[in-house]
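Can't paste images in this forum, so I'm doing it all in text. The chain is below; anyone willing to post the predicted structure tokens underneath?
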Amino acid sequence: MEVIAIQKSVLNGMKNELEALLELTENATRKYNPIFKGEQWLDNQEVCLMMNITKRTLQTYKDKGLLPYSRLNRKNYYKRSDVQALLDAVHPNNTNNNGFTDE
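Text version of the structure:
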């Protein structure tokens, strides 16, 4: 085991810098919280697994406007509530809240 001794003033300086960094991070993320409003977002793979469909079928749903999506850094994201609504529309009597069928 290695022990490193530093001056208390240096340790306090590091602590202050870390607290300032934490505050900057919290301030940067706080402005995005209203956008998400507690909504869970899913990527292509998660949607395909949840709906038990292929990527091509997912693309068809997007092309026909059946499943709204948002694009961020060349990646598509879908609101879980939108995916669940489409699942309910496709299989109204056959899905539960987690997206898996009761077959």
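The chain has a mean pLDDT of 86. The chain has two domains: 7-37, 39-90.
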